[in-house]
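Supplementary Methods. Inverse-folding protocol.

Structures were first reduced to a discrete structure-token string of length 412. This string, shown here, constituted the complete conditioning input.
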């Protein structure tokens, strides 16, 4: 372990420069052209093979050269591990007072994706330096558009999880609520799924003075907004979590005309596939029935977003065990409740046998102010790169080399 720490210290100046260069050139999802050049220049310098995928995504791959190493996989590639870093930025204006700040006006790495990318590059370099010590294949996913259209799904559709088929995936996300040298893990449900909901309510128009001659779509829509909240209070267990929010209502042309069409726009967030489908069915049934009761009709459309992120218990225990050995048990924190925010790493998990995702502390030890993700004040403590590389490298080696129980995703 001491040798690995020394190698990371030697590599750190290069990783630091990489992160700062990435931070200075933040780019919106699907437009990560400079970012791609920075990453591929590094991969080419080290001689790590890669190919472009899903437009601005990058898939790099390393194959171990130690056939004597343990492997539980029966195919010729040995066990196959996927590691992911998201690479896009956010439309936020960063203060020029930050030591390292954006040179792209109106764009900022305010979610730490520059750190994720540097950590994955550092992990790749260590795996390459020790390539003759392990067997199997490691795929490195430099994923675009996490903040916008869901680049994970596009990479998977383009074949990143195939030839060879990925067995397990691992990812991390910096978290300013914790200091460098600390991590947060979550067994089971970690992040919600999210779907867009559109309900078109149809009635018939009339003069505002004679509402009895029409069917008021505004009245129907109002009842729908209120009635559908019973989904949360009466149709889902109070031990589960569902959020149904309507944030936009469009309808009508004038104050004295009975409206014949209203569109309700909302989002549905759930924590597992079963609840997700049950909630959708309830919304459909209620919308149609309530609209019909008032003489109107409703059409319900769902636009699927990100899936729920559900960590595998076996792999989460491995992350915890590995981190305890490196950081000490006192530096491991446990996420009490799932987040109803979304994370498209879930698509990689679903495409593999199992996966695990955890949070890496990134606030400088002793710093009292905590600046959240997605804010202009957010900054990463550069030393967290060393911790992230050490954790991801050692976790990957364990995933490659040790016999693991067959994982089962925990949906409870």
């Amino acid at each position: 372990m001491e040798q690995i720490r020394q190698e990371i210290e030697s590599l750190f100046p290069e990783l630091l420069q990489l992160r700062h260069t990435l931070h200075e050139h933040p780019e919106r999802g699907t437009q990560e052209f400079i970012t791609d050049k920075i990453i591929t220049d590094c991969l080419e310098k080290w001689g790590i093979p890669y190919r472009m995928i899903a437009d601005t995504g990058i898939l790099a791959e390393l194959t171990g050269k130690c056939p004597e190493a343990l492997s539980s996989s029966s195919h010729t590639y040995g066990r196959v591990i996927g590691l992911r870093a998201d690479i896009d930025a956010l439309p936020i204006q960063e203060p020029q007072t930050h030591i390292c700040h954006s040179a792209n006006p109106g764009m900022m790495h305010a979610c730490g994706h520059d750190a994720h990318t540097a950590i994955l590059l550092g992990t790749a370099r260590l795996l390459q330096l020790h390539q003759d010590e392990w067997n199997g294949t490691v795929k490195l996913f430099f994923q675009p558009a996490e903040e916008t259209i869901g680049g994970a799904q596009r990479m998977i559709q383009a074949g990143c999880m195939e030839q060879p088929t990925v067995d397990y995936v691992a990812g991390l996300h910096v978290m300013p609520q914790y200091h460098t040298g600390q991590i947060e893990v979550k067994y089971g449900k970690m992040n919600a799924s999210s779907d867009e909901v559109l309900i078109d309510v149809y009635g018939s128009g009339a003069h505002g003075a004679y509402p009895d001659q029409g069917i008021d779509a505004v009245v129907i829509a109002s009842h729908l907004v209120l009635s559908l909240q019973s989904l949360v209070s009466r149709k889902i267990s109070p031990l589960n979590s569902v959020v149904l929010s309507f944030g936009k209502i469009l309808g009508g042309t004038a104050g004295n005309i009975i409206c014949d069409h209203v569109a309700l726009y909302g989002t549905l967030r759930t924590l597992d596939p079963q609840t997700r489908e049950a909630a959708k069915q309830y919304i459909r049934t209620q919308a149609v029935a309530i609209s019909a009761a008032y003489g109107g009709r409703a059409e319900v459309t769902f636009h699927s977003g990100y899936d729920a992120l559900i960590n595998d218990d076996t792999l989460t225990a491995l992350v915890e065990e590995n981190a305890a050995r490196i950081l000490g048990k006192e530096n491991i924190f446990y996420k009490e409740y799932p987040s109803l925010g979304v994370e498209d790493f879930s698509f990689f998990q679903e495409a593999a046998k199992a996966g695990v995702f955890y949070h890496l502390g990134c606030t400088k030890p002793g710093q009292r102010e905590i600046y959240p993700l997605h804010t202009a004040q957010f900054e990463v403590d550069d030393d967290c790169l060393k911790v992230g590389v050490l954790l991801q490298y050692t976790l990957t080696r364990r995933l490659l080399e040790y016999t693991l129980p067959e994982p089962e995703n925990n949906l409870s």
